[in-house]
Predict the structure.
Amino acid sequence: MSYKIIATILTDKDQSTEGLDAAISLADRMGAHLDIYVVTISHTETNNYYLGAEALMVAEQTRDAIDERQKLEAWLEDRMHGELIRWSMEAATVQGPALTGYLARKLRFSDLVVLPRPYQNNPEAANLVEACLFAAERPVLMIPQGCKAPEAGGHVLMGWNDGAEALAAARAALPLLQQADKADICIIDPPQHAADRSDPGGAMAQYLMRHGTKSEVAVLAKTEPHVGDILLRRAKEVGAQMIVSGAYGHSRLREAVFGGATRSLLELADRPILMSR
């Protein structure tokens, strides 16, 4: 099993290139086609200007965004010169509210989207990730600054809570899990009423085994306020090169206000994270 269509999104020529570099690396290793979307965004706020000024501001912001897109296209052409993978570029300039709809239409046929991890130096990254997960319903591999794509072999840590989001992430990660030496199925403080309470993680371990992945189950106590913090600590302890996790088991609003596993992983992860829901 392998990914056949990988996508990535560029919004700023000055953003870090870890997402693009990782997408190229994975496309090369898996023989996949790489779709690169160059998207610049006009964020003009309306209803705050005197009569007639809104149209002028929108036009000016749009021209600036188009200029930025053209520079980014030229930079990408230069960057991809000499790459042997199959790739294509599609460029667009959109108004801020139209971004989610645009990405939903373009990404829904991708097997995997590779992006920089949010909350770093790209202000659009969080919006891109949420658009991919919720609107396009695509799994997202996020690359922190200074990191590369997960390599074949090595150790992968998978957060497991018997939920639909975690199962979706495991399925989405199968091409990478199959290339790993081992996967840790990490269960944190399993509830007594869980469906697999007699054998926590056993069904998932069997699922991965039948897909050619060696795995071990680790049941951990909840010693940190957020599950994401425990997953990050465990990943460091076992030397995992990637974390696989379901995204937004709680509502996005609750995660934003109170925090949660998704939010802490997105803010703090120091290694690639694959999320789906």
